[in-house]
Amino acid sequence: MRENKNGQHNGQNNGQNNGQNNGQHNRQHKTWMTTIFPFLKWIHEVRDTWKGDFFAGLTGAVVVLPQGVAFAMIAGMPPQYGLYTAMVPAVIAALFGSSRHLISGPTTAISLVIFSTVAVMAEPGSGHYIEIVMLLTLMAGILQFSLGLVRLGGLVDFVSHSVVIGFTSGAAILIGASQLKHVFGLKYKNVSGFVESLKRLYENISQYSSYSVIIAVITLIVVVAIRKFRPKWPGMLIGMLAGGILNYSLGWYKMGVRVVGALPSPIPSFSMPVLSFDTIHSLASPAMAIAMLGIMEAVSIARSVALKSGQKIDGNQEFIGQGLSNMVGAFLSSYASSGSFTRSGVNYSAGAKTPFAAICAALWLMVILLFVVKFAAYLPIASMAAVILVVAYNLIDFHHIVATVRLSKQDAAVMGVTFMATLFLELEFAIYVGALLSIGLYLNKTARPKVQPRIPEPGSRQFVTDPYLPQCAQFGIIRIEGDLYFAAMNHVEANISTIHSYVPTQNKILVIGTSINHIDLMGVESMVNVVKEYRRSGIEMFFCKLKPEVVSMMQKTGAINEIGQDHIFEGKEEAVREIVSNLDKSVCAECPHRVFWECDANKRCTEIKIAKSAQSLVPSMARAY
User: Fold this and answer.
1) Is 373 a member of any domain?
2) Is residue 144 part of a domain?
3) Residue 326 and residue 201 in one domain
4) Do 267 and 120 fall within a single domain?
5) CB 261 within 8 A of CB 383
6) What's this model's pTM, rounded to 2 decimal places?
């Protein structure tokens, strides 16, 4: 009977253990699967959200139709490539990215970088030009994907918002200058430089087409009016339709007005990027610039939308998603893409719940193209140029520009340098200049942590930095605000020496390390050397309120033993009490100030000693008499 019970009990335990092990195994398997295929996290929700996603996709398709053609023009690509780029990357990025609302596709900044890079290597729109662009897209995608795999998603955090503002503002000016040619109906070879573009415009302006100017102006008026009075309407699409109807009804397309031309199949075709070592070598720098610019756009847009939706964004997963979208897109007639702020914002506002909305947008766009491919034969390029001028104007963030200039000279300098570099240097170098300047200023700031003398405020234990408060003649307190690493140590050592020179009689110095979050090997060695140097001069250094990470590093290197365990305190109160109690009492007796609360005890101790000495002198004096 007992054996049966034991067997039953063991069977229950084994069943529970097996169930727990299987559950844990299933959870690990699920986590592993969702890491490789992130769309498994939300795909089951589609049966409840498909209606909202379906109609949000329709709205997104209507928005991207004019943008896709316009951005392709900026990139020097045939119009259909802009539309293909709005389809394929959107689907791949939705499946493998982390954002639920980000929609990828062609963007103005990347389109301009592509044009400025490849236009010097081949004639825009030609077969060779398209081959180079596809190879550039593949290289950028591989770089993005690789950075995501090694989990370097935090790289974009080192590129400040001022760099992005300066670059996009400069890109907006470049885009506007490049489209003036089409607004005036001029026919000359495209150029990528800002100055060269204005020079060509000035040389050819006398040959302008009045028809093109009228179409561009009317398109511009329609777009601006709809934005003002009916902001929810697809203003760009309506403006293009107005220009196309005007061109077709008056027959201006027969009088020299250039048109987009009939679009080919709405379904992207497979194409193999042509691999060439020389071309790959020349595209290495632009590919890195496009990769970083694309990630900056995608992650910043995803985070801005996530602030409204409450979603958390995985930067590394966005690297992988954007990289895969460009790698796959390079084989399906799509050029380099990134997150679209307009489409992502519209997608969220239209009620999208999952990335399935991006897939719906791509499918809707394909359906719409089946009906409008022939109409594009009458769509004037001047009308497209007017739409691009509006897009370029929207790129300039006047609000943040004014705020940056008003609030931070350093950020304003970064923004201004990036802006000027965008206008007068090659675009990929403009990105590098802005990013390096931003990182350089950041490193310069961290390499100069604040080192301040601290003095107790009269009547309280609150420590302040006030040069008018009296200091103790024997004991000084210093607070270091910043990390102690190799680049900061010369600055820290020099400031400690300067502060000590104010009261050179101080033979005890307490360093408060509340704000020291990190210390490297160089930092530890430098602080040990400072302690030893001051100790040789009869000055003792103490430390308090060090963070566990800092203490751990000091223990590993043996610095605590060299400094002395009794010279390191956990709290400020304990440190002050212990150090003040060991000061020279005779000096305290003559000091007219009460810097620390413990000063009274030191003075009373000195008074008692003097009194005892005086009492011991009385009998001896009496005997002498």
Assistant:
1) yes
2) yes
3) yes
4) yes
5) no
6) 0.69
Contact (Cβ atoms closer than 8 angstroms) between residue 264 and residue 79: no
In angstroms, rounded to a whole number, what is the distance separating the alpha carbons of residues 533 and 323?
54
Q: pLDDT tier at 476 (50, 70, 90 boundaries)? A: very high
Q: What is the distance between the alpha carbons of residues 393 and 297, in angstroms, rounded to a whole number? A: 18
| Counted domains in the chain | 2
Give the domain range for residue 479.
450-609
pLDDT at 621: 40
Looking at the fold, whether 133 and 54 belong to one and the same domain comes out as: yes
CA distance 36 to 44: 17
d(CA 347, CA 63): 10
Average pLDDT over every residue of 416-443? 83
Give residue-wise pLDDT tens across range 268-294.
888 888 888 889 999 998 999 899 888
334 with 234, same domain? yes
Q: Please indicate, yes or no, if residue 86 is contained in any of the structural domains.
A: yes
* Phi, psi of 125, deg, nearest 5: 85, -10
Distance (Å, rounded) from C-alpha 393 to C-alpha 476?
A: 58
**Separation between Cα atoms, residue 223 and residue 187, nearest integer Å:** 25
- The Cα 603–Cα 586 span in angstroms is 8
Residue 530 · residue 495 · CB < 8 Å: no
For 548-581, write each residue's pLDDT tens digit. Answer: 999 999 999 999 999 999 999 999 889 998 998 8
Instruction: Say which CATH number the domain at 492 has.
Output: 3.30.750.24
- Reference 268, options 85, 39, 420, 410; nearest CA is 85
> What does the block give as tokens for 372?
């409008």
For 602-622, give the DSSP string: HHHHHHHHHHHHHHHHHHHHH
- Outline where 40-160 has alpha helix (H): 46-75, 79-85, 88-96, 108-118, 127-149
* Domain boundary pick from 357, 374, 394: 394
